Amino acid sequence: xxxxxxxxxxxxxxxxxxxLGRYYxxxxxxxxxxxxxxxxxxxxxxxxxxxxxxxxxxxxxNFTYHPNFSQVRLxxxxxxxxxxxxEATNLTVGDRFLxxxxxxxxxxxxxxxxxxxxxxxxxxxxxxLVVTIGMSKYRYTLRELExxxxxxxxxxxxxxxxxxxxxxxxxxxxxxxxxxxxNVNSEGIEGLKHYADNSELxxxxxxEAKRVASKRIVLKAHFNSPLFKRFNFMQCVRKSTVSHYGVxxxx
Length: 251
Fold this sequence. Notes:
By secondary structure, the protein is α/β, with parallel strands linked by helices. The protein folds into 2 domains: 2-51; 70-249, Vaccinia Virus protein VP39 (Rossmann fold, 3-Layer(aba) Sandwich), CATH 3.40.50.150. It has 11 helices and 11 strands. It has helices spanning 11-23, 36-43, 70-78, 84-89, 106-114, 125-137, 143-150, 159-164, 187-190, 203-212, 227-230; strands at residues 2-4, 46-49, 54-58, 61-64, 96-99, 117-122, 153-156, 171-176, 213-222, 234-236, 243-249. A 7-stranded mixed sheet has the order 7-6-5-8-9-11-10. A hairpin with a 4-residue loop joins strand 2 (46-49) and strand 3 (54-58). Helix 5 crosses helix 7 (143-150). One of its GO terms (molecular function) is rRNA (guanine-N2-)-methyltransferase activity. It comes from Nosocomiicoccus ampullae. This is SAM-dependent methyltransferase.
């Protein structure tokens, strides 16, 4: 992987991208008017960081950060409407929230509206970089969303390895949103699915989560996913939607 600028950039952006390369230990390459396609042919993965846009490019596919449905959800929340994620997690001010499957971080952003102690884990380097850098650059339409995104602590690490290092009851709520086993048509995750970690949840991960979570573990999955029964989650049935939540109370 290399990191570079868009074709058009100024000195400020150039220095910023070079610094990001040093910080994340990714080789920086001057663009020199070379097309992204040619860069991908030579380097396989090309991370392009612009003023407001971050995109990871591979052959025949790319992944760009966007807040998915979090903006729409927050507008509804601000109007006093319910949010199924917040209902399932039962988050309160000051709760320590751990998102073990960050992805586009849309749920972590919503969690940050309630509590300023949110940690998100991402095992895939490309997704971690695009989302972590992208959240700091994206031009959000809601100031509340922008402020929430800045409080999230992100880590490039496998959830199991992270959980093993934590003390008992280190977090109040632990959240899993693995990629669905079934094909689901969604523009929000179309770009993500080519880069995401498709590893399944295991008994070992859930057992560590039970030790670390002081209040509950929450799972989001397809309504007919076998994960609910396999790990004894209480499935919260939601009519007319393919996504259901499951809860394990640990307190």
